[in-house]
Amino acid sequence: MSNDFSYLSEAGTDKSGLIKGLQLIQAKEGYVPDDGIRAVAKHFGVAEAEVEGVLTFYAQFKRQKPGKYQICICDGTACHIKGSTQIAAWLSAELGIKDGETTEDGLFSIETVACLGCCSLAPVMSVNGKVYGKLDRKGLTRILNDYKKLG
Ligand code: FES
Fold first, then answer.
1. How far is Cα of residue 28 from the mean position of the Cα atoms in its chain?
2. Given ligand 1 and candidates 72, 82, 112, 115, which is best to mutate, with the most ligand atoms within 8 Å of its CB?
3. pTM for the full predicted model
4. Among 24, 90, 122, 137, which residue has the least CB neighbours within 10 Å?
5. Average pLDDT of the chain to the nearest whole number
6. Is the dihedral of CA 107, 110, 111, 114 positive or negative?
């Protein structure tokens, strides 16, 4: 991972570019690390606490490094009706993490998203963009084990 945030210059130096600066970091790093907060604070001449406040306010920003395998669990209407809440609960239990978190080994992260665009397969999740549909507990465990084996 690069700790060079020189690309922040693309957001200008006016404070109004602060969110853009954070978006740039997230686009490049996949999340906003602590040193990214420090870099933004320094770049825009604001307190780190102010940057933290912006991060907390906008749900779009991730503070944890995403896992090698990024799991998106769909909670759109069709998936919700077909039990996505239960799928999410199983997923959390299997991996020991909650929505928005990453496993300690860095392998998996979970994110709840809206419709993944394949409602006829509900309930659905994706792993690094690959879609898995008609999920049940057995299928979920099998998918996770396959990724664990890959390491
Ligand atoms: S609601 Fe889940 S894929 Fe559409």
1. 14
2. 115
3. 0.80
4. 137
5. 94
6. positive
